[in-house]
Amino acid sequence: MYKLYYYPGNANLAPHMLLEELGVPYELVLVDRDRNAHTSPEYLKLNPNGRIPTLIDGDLVLYETAAICLHLVDRHPEAGMAPPVGTDARAEFYKWLVYLTNTLQAELLTYFYPERLTDDAGAAAQVKAHAERRVGGMLDLIESALARNTDKGRGPYLLGENYSAADPYLLMLGRWTRFMQRPARERMHLGHHLALIAARPAVQRAFESEGLQEPLY
Question: Which string of DSSP letters, residue by residue, matches 62-102?
């Protein structure tokens, strides 16, 4: 059985949704950030970065959200949550997952934690504002890609017709923008995508078990 260390709404949400889609047994273990449990000696033995999530799979201890998602889709290829290895579609899957984690997620962390880049409160506000604009541009890029899929009749997902682990990952990051001046949901195709993913029963179960409230994205 898998064990996923989580805190509600954190970066664990993507692998949590994926575990529900896979329908495999797993256990959720709360890491209470409000009590700094992510910096406890016990947790740091598992994840020396002090970040959430961490996945336990037998003797394997794995952190980094995208790595966990890739591991899960490779453990369960029969679920079809990623295209077959070596195909063009798999390369597209890699592209989107890496873009989401390396580009959009990284910029979102700058938005949420601008004080990591400066000791000056005024400068932190500027960093946050600039990060929000850059996030907007990244969301516009995703919006354009989803629009092209629709125009070509390819389907509403990042890979077109085929739902993949990249889609709940995008929902997780889209959710993080929900209180921005122009959240992800306000873009037509992206908003449709987020609503479509959020309506999936597996996603609803993950949101419910983490106790997440409206607005969900």
Answer: EESHHHHHHHHHHH-GGG-SSPPTTSHHHHHHHHHHHIIII
Q: In terms of CATH architecture, what is 2-79?
A: 3-Layer(aba) Sandwich (3.40)
- Residue 187 CA to residue 195 CA, distance in Å, equals 12
pLDDT tens-place string over residues 157-176:
999 999 999 999 999 999 99
End-to-end CA distance of the chain: 29
Domain with CATH 1.20.1050.10 in the chain: 88-200
Could you tell me which CATH number the domain at 88-200 has?
Answer: 1.20.1050.10
Smallest CA-to-CA distance from 33 within 6, 64, 2 is with 6
CA distance 153 to 140: 20
Q: Which pLDDT does position 165 carry in this prediction?
A: 98
Residue 196 near residue 204 (C-beta atoms within 8 A): no
Q: How far apart are CA 53 and CA 118, in angstroms?
A: 26
CB 111 within 8 A of CB 137: no
